Input
Amino acid sequence: MENQISKSSAEENELEESSVTMLDVLEEEKEREEEYAAVLGGSDEKCCTYSEGAIKRQALYSCLTCCPESRNDLNKCAGVCLACSYQCHENHELIELYTKRNFRCDCPTERMAGNRCRLNANLKQPIALNENNIYNQNFQGLYCNCHRPYPDPETTVEEFMLQCVICEDWFHSHHLNASSNVTIKLMEACSEMICGPCMDKHAFLQDYTGLSLSLMEQSVENSEINGSICDDVRAGKDNDYDKLRNDLDKSISDIMNIGEAASSQTNTDEPKLKRQKLEETTEEQSTSKTQTGICRRPTLKSNYESGPTFWAADWRLNLCRCMNCMDMYKSDKVEFFLDNDDTAKSYEERGMRRAASESSAYEQGIQALASINRVQQIDAITEYNHMKDRLKEYLHTFVVSKKVVTEEDINRFFNEMRSERNATVGQPYFCR
Output
């Protein structure tokens, strides 16, 4: 009896450990799905985006197989959309670029004349180049001001990188830290980052750095950076703009007073010509205020020091939208600052919402796990572990031989696994 109880307890323990293992597997799958949804969920995986023109933001890949010269020449680089990476560049050496702004797929163009786009077979190919596309060193597989690949084969430490919201290059955290003397906590707390060269190129941003997390850290240097820092930033923003709001109210009040003065002058002995001149002046001032608006760009200079800046999620809402500033954004080619859908966060949220409407593998796995008994759970977990071990051994042979794993190789593996399983089915069991 005791042996039976011990055996039952052992089976319970084995089941518990196995169940935890299976849940861990499902949890890992869930994390991968969420990451996939964030990066790729907002992009079309079935249709080439070339016909849609320059997409506001989409997942992109650089193909070094089709553009080998691009390793040494940025003018030879090319980017392809998610669908083309699947259908037209399978088994090619692709560099994942995360997302890029205002880019048109290069797959059907002359940049890839040697690889006909399968998703645009109806177009006369190759077609003209996308002249408005912008290419940086990321298309060559290089990043940061150190111009190293990611992941860096010569680095043994974990790499944390941030993307500049303007040039869209990626920078190592330790290089940003070295150049600006900021902490990792601040970099993790920020929603967007602008690198030092872009801050120098677009000098107007230096007027807004009093609202950035970069300077806020000076006042919270000895405290934890958490979600409340956004409230602190907004409070700082309000204080910084108090003077501007007062100036705006005073300007409006002055216009109203001038108008009232003009009306009251009609009953005086003042010459008619002088009254008309005053009315014309008032009208001109009022029209000027309506057309150009009051510039809300901060006039109080912050203690900005050359280097990257880190911003909270709503920092773009603080940008002035008067006509002069709007013209400046256009000349600097940063009009996207005013587009709420431009941010990478907005793109990722769209992908997450799209994925949320579909049943995930995690949910399906949990449902399947709950629908079978304990013996079947143990059998399923045993088969999974066996398959995982065999797959590791199989893939290791490709690592050793430095061969690319193709879809046919994976299909061959599972066909062999299926054949092994079928060979064991139907064999008689003899008990002695």
User: Anything to note?
Assistant: The longest strand covers residues 94-103. Residues 43-143 form one domain. Strands lie at 55-63, 79-81, 94-103, 161-163, 170-172, 192-194, 309-311.
